[in-house]
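Notes to self, Aquaporin TIP3-2:
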Amino acid sequence: MPGQRRFAVGGSEEATHPESLRATLAEFVSTTMFVFAGEGSVLALGKLYGIPGVSSGSGLVAVALAHAFALFVAVSIASNISGGHVNPAVTLGALVGGRITLLRALLFWVAQLLGAIVAALLLRFTTDDMRPVGFAVGPGIGQLHALVLEVVMTFGLVYTVYATALDPKRGPLGTIAPLAIGLIVGANILAGGPFDGASMNPARAFGPALVGWHWKNHWIYWIGPLVGAALAGLVYEFVMIPQANPHPHAHQPLASEDY
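result:
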């Protein structure tokens, strides 16, 4: 049916195409920058106050702002090359909506995870062996509560990505997509940080968990964001965007229909 969205695996030539390689490198660099600044803000508070993690309201605000600013920049600098996903969950949301091929999604996932690991390693080296803190479920919060929280927050993030960067009706709104994406992450950290850390990003959780070797409840920070992202992608792509509007599977910048 003309205009119908479809899932695409992608050809083998895509893996070595210069555009795909540039996009993959852009995801690696942007994710490294984002995780370095985000996790670094948490370690900086620990250095200042001698308490690991975020233990005060002002500290929570500082961490939320650091993540919002860092993600705004990370998305902006990669948007014209890879679309600026900077998050395996965002990539999954784009994949289920048919915005990228499976092959490109796999390349992005590898780049994002490697970027997060490199960022955590750099932090451990530059802070004289401080262990990255990563994410943890707060006292008195059940695993199910934390899981649902991650689903809800990531749904809001990926829905924002679709509304500001992918919707063909967005018009001039597309110019503020990186800012909107950064702001929703910062706002969600303020809302969910005391409960489960507010990851919304499996790579952001994985890098510090691996380097700092903190694995308790780590599955929450994979299942929750991936489920939330898939739901947001399906809802916005197939309910909010008219089915008659076709789009290519190849990447386009933020200002186009692809992300």
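- The chain has nine helices and no strands.
- Residues 14-240 form a domain with the Glycerol uptake facilitator protein fold (CATH 1.20.1080.10).
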